[in-house]
Amino acid sequence: MDTVYSVVGLGKLGASMAAAIASRGFRVIGVDINRRAVEAVNAGQAPVQETGLEELIAANQKRLRATLDHHEAVLNSDVTFVVVPTPSDERGAFSLQYAAWAFRKIGYALKEKKGYHLVVLTSTVLPGSTRYGLLPILEKESGKRCGVDFGLCYSPEFIALGSVIRDFLNPDFTLIGEYDEKSGSLLESTYARILENNAPCYRMSFENAELAKIAVNTFVTMKITFANMLADLCERIPGGNIDAVTQALGADQRIGPKYLKGSLGYGGPCFPRDNIALSFFARAVDTAAELAETTDRINRALPAKIVEQLKPFFHKGATVAVLGLAYKPFSHVVEESQGIYLAKTLADIGFRVVGYDPLAAEPARIELRDQAVVLDSLEECLNQAEVVIIATPDPVFRRLTLADLQDRNVETVVDCWRILEKELKGHSIRYITIGQNINDEESQARLIKLWGNTDANSDT
Ligand SMILES: NC(=O)c1ccc[n+]([C@@H]2O[C@H](COP(=O)([O-])OP(=O)(O)OC[C@H]3O[C@@H](n4cnc5c(N)ncnc54)[C@H](O)[C@@H]3O)[C@@H](O)[C@H]2O)c1
């Protein structure tokens, strides 16, 4: 008999995992405490918005079903993935509240289970959580022993919202924190059967895997922030151009070109909280994760810093349009979005702000409330604007033309991602970017002051 999988938590990650595993020919039982999520899956619909999810669930209905009953799901499956929320608590740590509840339910079912069962924690947690926070719950509720009656792994995913299914089935690598050899081997062979690619598998202790997971995210944010620092420097040197600098930098194989754009900061539900959690953990174990703390501080300060730099270019009382309110293109998520922060900062200092996003209008409206008017059409947004800020590199904004802006009242375009350079540079509209010098004369004067009397210095 083929292995049957259960997936506890049918949210953005769990529902996609359940559908993806079913699409590889396995029977999957999804579990959620939210009746609507369960009913959606059983009706062949996606419980959350994610690229390709609805189609995949509909196409695999005969292998995928969902239930509110953890007990039944555990008894009727061989491997259980736990993909419940681990929200940040007031200390900045990842809370185990939901995971603990799920583990209690699973442990209780394991009590009755005949034969070996593998539990895999997928949710992001901090080092020590699996062994010292959750494993004891399974043993207590089941009255059984880990490593004897059941196995346990911590195996997080490295996916991006919008491409969860593709990323899950084609990862760069899989990461397994294992209680013992048997648990790890079982999960490794599970991945070998499920995944579409031949991703290498890294197996280690729970704690090393827990640290590796958060290290990946915090490293990427550090890289983004490093490029943003270079962009700031480029704005202050004559002819400065971040794209020229990062092209060379990214060609170095030790560095690589990804996440090296030089633009606005990072946002979304994962990246920002990971630096805070790592900083919390470091303090909790009597040290300091200063790089993570600094990355977070710089990223949070960026929207206000950018507005401060841009302010002199906007006339008093101007209407500013922020294009791109989700934290990235093709997303409806506005959590920690730079576009939202820019809009709020501009509103706070007295500008009238309008906004547009192809997918995120509704959540953006809730987030911005009385601070900005979120419009349903790009045209309407441009009609009202004297200043346009492009906050995400969405294809819809890439297609804007000089005429689109010139025919209206737009005086200034701030292109944070330099996507309209060919179209707008050197024309009547003032075109400002992040990462390119906007005042060569002033920058030259600074450098002349710094280096111009080198000869005189060498005489003394
Ligand atoms: N979304 C991402 O991009 C992403 C990426 C990597 C890791 N993660 C991690 O994966 C975990 C889940 O994230 P998500 O974005 O899918 O969360 P989500 O909030 O979208 O979904 C979680 C689901 O779990 C359900 N749930 C809560 N408690 C439950 C319980 N005891 N039993 C059954 N179902 C329960 C909720 O009803 C919800 O449907 C988190 O730890 C997150 O950090 C998420």
Q: Give every kind of bound small molecule, once each.
A: nicotinamide-adenine-dinucleotide
Rg measurement, Å: 25 Å
Widest sheet: strand ordering: 3-2-1-4-5-6-7-8
Give the name of the CATH superfamily of the largest domain: NAD(P)-binding Rossmann-like Domain
CATH architecture of the largest domain: 3-Layer(aba) Sandwich
H/I helix tally: 20
SS content category: alpha/beta
Structure commentary:
The protein has three domains: 4-204, Rossmann fold (3-Layer(aba) Sandwich); 215-300, N-(1-d-carboxylethyl)-l-norvaline Dehydrogenase, domain 2 (Orthogonal Bundle), CATH 1.10.1040; 314-434, 3-Layer(aba) Sandwich (Rossmann fold). It contains 20 helices and 14 strands. It has helices at residues 14-23, 35-42, 53-59, 70-75, 97-112, 129-142, 164-169, 181-194, 206-234, 242-251, 271-284, 290-310, 338-348, 361-368, 378-384, 395-398, 402-406, 421-424, 440-451, 454-459, and strands at 4-8, 27-31, 64-67, 79-82, 117-121, 150-154, 174-178, 201-204, 319-323, 352-356, 373-374, 387-390, 412-415, 430-433. The strands form two sheets. It has an eight-stranded mixed β-sheet with strand order 3-2-1-4-5-6-7-8, with helices on both faces. Strands 11-10-9-12-13-14 form a six-stranded parallel β-sheet, with helices on both faces. Helix 1 (14-23) crosses helix 3 (53-59). The termini are far apart. 44% of the residues are buried.
